[in-house]
Backbone:
């Protein structure tokens, strides 16, 4: 529908303008205090754009003609065209800044097997990751993974684009640090702190006491991977009141637990951290193995979708909440300390 | 070594490999018995692994012996000729098209079709009386194309772990295979092996040359069909459930050739048993070296096979050289 497209584009062209209009943001975000302010534009309806197309166009034109200064009003110090090339930064960005300020997100942000916010990413240009695409979007800030695509990073820097390397967060403390860093880069420190406060509040509500007799849990993934200490999953499991079986078996953050060991000495809660359907070829075969299905039939088990733990973002708190709920269902551990 | 003692030795080695495969686990050596879980480990995890090791190793050794006899070329082998690569491509296509989930046996049949296409392509490219160099070049070309297309298929499907999966298909593995895989692969491997065993007498006649073979009643066209069909069935089904495992078909027939007095027909049974022994023992060895199981079976067979291959190339060059 070309008509809708056109209207949408026109409305977005006025993005900074609408952001300037007092009351617009507060009004919508006030409906759901749990959702950060920035989340609001993701659900910004297209309908007003259609209904008030003429009015919008007039308003835009008026503002553009009448006072270009107005457009700059609240955004003078902050980045206005932000591109993210990193799945984890994508998701934090969507929760942190107004949608109109995001010029592009990585294509992974639209993948429901990996991203927590597919809805939010819809409609924002998807970037595969080449410097050329990024330049075409005319960004004033580009977020990249610290250790990924060094060639693209250096090329963008040489061409004079402001590039911020965002490290991967694999603990709750690192999540807070990464949110603060991104908020600092985009110039939304207050919003960032609000996200962290919300994250900490939910985390503390979900956190279970570290009793002596905690049950064992294991985050079982494709290729028999099981995350040990040093991984976000480990911290989630421990926060929810479990002992991580992978830590008991001295596995590292990317450790592997042979299927046999799992069958002979299973955890009290088997967490399926990947869905077998996500991996149709061989890597997911361990999840479809009859022996694993047998264990799942005899022990408590839980499916924890990959987007919830793949990235260290404030939304990862939902994984702790789900694990804590499973912990309450399970009751006390069957094993001794 | 004489024929019968050699046959007994490889048979014994295969039996030891099979038993060891049942005995060795990540927690050390021993038969898990007693609880339900222990029986599950024995019958659902170790038995499928041992059975697949026996059948797949046997298929690869046998296919190597038949291809070397048929092409009268010591460098012929399913892995080097691109048959395993083609089969892997067929299997990946079957999985990503959704056929493997919808139709039973679509997975090994995909491997079969891919393997048959690759075998056929190499034979057409290299010709039936090709020198070693032409055969290897044709094999490299077909293998590379198959690997590239497999990689493309994995990348086109939304798959965050395409690189790891690629590694699996290039460097096969028996880790975490189940009885489901045994039921899928074994009928086709057994059928393919019967077809390959049936070529024995014709292969013996072929050592005298094509004309002489035709004079004693060998139908060359039918023989060619049987070689392609048997290889595709056995290697295709093997690769579809375990990925590409290289060099088994190269090493085993060579080690046993002298005992068979250089008669290709007599080499087939020992090559089947020898291939089974090699794969089973390599799979046990990698479990002892890396109990967590991230070492690939194809890595171990390549470690054994690649130096052997180099030695073979040097010897071939000396024989052909001025």
Residues:
């Amino acid at each position: 529908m070309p008509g809708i497209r056109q209207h949408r584009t026109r409305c977005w062209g006025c993005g900074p303008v609408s952001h300037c209009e007092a009351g617009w943001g507060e009004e919508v975000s006030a409906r759901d205090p749990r959702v950060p302010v920035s989340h609001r534009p993701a659900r910004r309806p297209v309908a007003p754009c259609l209904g008030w197309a003429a009015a919008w166009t007039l308003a835009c034109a008026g503002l553009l003609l009448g006072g270009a200064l107005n457009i700059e009003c609240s955004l003078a110090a902050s980045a206005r065209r932000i591109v993210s090339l990193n799945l984890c930064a994508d998701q934090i960005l969507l929760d942190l800044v107004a949608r109109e300020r995001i010029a592009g997100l990585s294509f992974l942000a639209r993948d429901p097997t990996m991203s927590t916010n597919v809805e939010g990413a819809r409609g924002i240009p998807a970037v595969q990751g080449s410097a050329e695409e990024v330049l075409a979007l005319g960004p004033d800030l580009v977020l990249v993974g610290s250790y990924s695509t060094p060639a693209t990073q250096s090329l963008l820097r040489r061409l004079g684009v402001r590039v911020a390397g965002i490290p991967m967060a694999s603990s709750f403390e690192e999540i807070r640090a990464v949110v603060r860093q991104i908020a600092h880069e985009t110039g939304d420190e207050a919003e960032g702190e609000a996200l962290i406060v919300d994250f900490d509040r939910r985390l503390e509500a979900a956190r279970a006491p570290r009793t002596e007799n905690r049950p064992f849990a294991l985050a079982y993934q494709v290729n028999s991977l099981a995350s040990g200490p040093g991984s976000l999953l480990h911290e989630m499991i421990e926060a929810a009141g479990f002992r991580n079986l992978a830590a008991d078996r001295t596995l590292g953050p990317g450790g592997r637990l042979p299927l046999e060991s799992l069958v002979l000495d299973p955890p009290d809660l088997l967490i399926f951290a990947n869905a077998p359907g996500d991996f149709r070829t061989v890597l997911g075969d361990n999840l479809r193995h009859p022996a694993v299905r047998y264990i799942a039939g005899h022990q408590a088990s839980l499916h924890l979708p990959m987007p919830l733990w793949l990235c260290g973002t404030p939304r990862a708190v939902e994984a702790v909440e789900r694990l804590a709920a499973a912990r309450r269902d399970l009751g006390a551990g069957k094993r001794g300390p | 070594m004489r024929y019968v003692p050699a046959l007994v030795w490889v048979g014994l080695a295969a039996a030891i490999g099979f038993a060891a495969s049942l005995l060795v686990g990540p927690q050390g050596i021993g038969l898990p018995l007693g609880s339900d879980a222990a029986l599950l480990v024995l019958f659902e995890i170790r038995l499928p692994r041992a059975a697949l090791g026996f059948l797949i190793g046997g298929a690869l050794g046998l296919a190597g012996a038949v291809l070397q006899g048929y092409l009268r070329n010591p460098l012929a082998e399913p892995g080097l000729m691109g048959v395993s690569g083609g089969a892997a491509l067929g299997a990946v296509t079957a999985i990503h098209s959704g056929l493997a989930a919808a139709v039973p046996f679509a997975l090994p049949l995909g491997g079969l079709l891919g393997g048959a296409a690759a075998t056929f392509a190499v034979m057409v490219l290299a010709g039936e009386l090709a020198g070693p160099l032409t055969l290897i070049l044709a094999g490299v070309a077909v293998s590379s194309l198959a690997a590239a297309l497999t990689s493309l298929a994995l990348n086109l499907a939304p798959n965050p772990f395409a690189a790891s999966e690629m590694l699996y298909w290039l460097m096969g593995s028996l880790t975490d295979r189940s009885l489901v895989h045994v039921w899928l692969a074994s009928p086709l491997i057994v059928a393919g092996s019967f077809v390959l065993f049936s070529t024995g007498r014709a292969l013996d006649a072929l050592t005298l040359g094509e004309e002489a073979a035709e004079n004693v009643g060998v139908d060359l066209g039918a023989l060619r069909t049987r070689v392609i069909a048997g290889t595709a069935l056995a290697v295709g089904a093997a690769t579809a459930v375990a990925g590409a495992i290289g060099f088994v078909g190269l090493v085993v027939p060579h080690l046993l050739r002298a005992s068979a007095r250089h008669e290709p027909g007599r080499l087939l049974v020992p090559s089947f048993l020898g291939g089974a022994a090699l794969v089973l023992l390599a799979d046990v060895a990698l479990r002892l070296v890396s109990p967590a199981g991230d070492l690939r079976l194809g890595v171990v067979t390549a470690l054994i096979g690649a130096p052997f291959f180099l030695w073979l190339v040097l010897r071939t060059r000396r024989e052909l050289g001025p």
Remarks:
- The beta strands of chain B are 24-25, 28-29.
- The domain at 3-320 of chain B is CATH 1.10.3470.10 (ABC transporter involved in vitamin B12 uptake, BtuC).
- The interface with chain A takes residues 25-27, 32, 37-38, 40-41, 44-46, 92, 95-96, 100-101, 154, 157-161, 164-165, 168-169, 173, 175-180, 243, 291-294 of chain B (CB under 8 Å).
